[in-house]
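FAQ: What does a ligand-bound record look like?

Like this one, built around iron/sulfur cluster:
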Amino acid sequence: MKTSITKDKAVHTVFGIVPSRRLGQSLGISPIPKKTCNYSCIYCQLGRTQKFTKNRSLFFPITRIIQELKEYLSSISEAQYDIITIVGDGEPTLYEGLGELINQIKSIQKKPVAVISNGSLMANKQVRQDLSLADVVLLNFDSWDEESFKKINRPLKLINFKKRYEGYLKFREEFSGILYLEVMLVKGINDKEEQVSKIAKLIEKIHPNVVFVNVPVRPPAESWVKIPDQENIDKAREILNARRMDYLPAGDFSSLEKNPIEAIIDIIGRHPMREEDIETFLHGRIINNPDRIKELKEQIISELRAISKVKEISYGSTRFFRLV
Ligand code: SF4
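The answer part, i.e. the structure of the complex:
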């Protein structure tokens, strides 16, 4: 097993609880360093990929991740989360200890384990075996051939559309858990009826439990990426017999950090937050004191604006804060 351990103890591998549009209240685990991926999707909310890698590595020791998880679990009640989700600041199947990590998470708590993956390594038997240990697997499926795959997901050269697709088909045969597929629609790129129909034809053979149609609601890596017209989203949903995700719920963002500003920085390192998300987050911490929440929100926003690594991004009619 190749080891490439990240030494930075300040990096948290456990985060949340984040309201997931697909999975409920999700306690997140990120076993890979920030923005480490084998794709550089045009719509990625983390920006362009900074660390391209084709190798699976043990970026953090499993013992460290499990220790952080135990500490987190001891600070919350079981009712506060629905699922533990292994999701990266990049691609989680690049973590070589994925199978063992899933086993250990299951041995210390009872809630289901999900993995959200871009599906890039589905041709690899070991990756499929690792993913088979999860209860829920969510894979991305935005394209219909090699050309559209390269245009949308911009994978490393060695990742081949056909082999990846064959890996999806094998995985469905091997995996008895819940399989979700997510199609991210981008205006003018993959939202035309004939394009969506080609995607649907391929997806049909995989037999996922549910297909989700998503749109880039958060600021994307490329500024020219746009949300499709509602008519096209509705049509795509009909063709794919899919559930729609083109909204952002108000949610209960939380973090291990005690100080609210540190907690928000912790969250926006992984997940862009809107102003109203900050307010919702404060509601979760300060009970019934609207004046104090308003005051603290303004103070936090002005502190965020003073931090050079925090970027304020206007996207559509909404402003987001993201750590770069
Ligand atoms: S969207 Fe996911 S798969 Fe695509 S570049 Fe970002 S982290 Fe990687």
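Follow-up question: can I read anything off the structure? Yes, for example: Residues 1-7, 246-252 have pLDDT under 50 and may be disordered.
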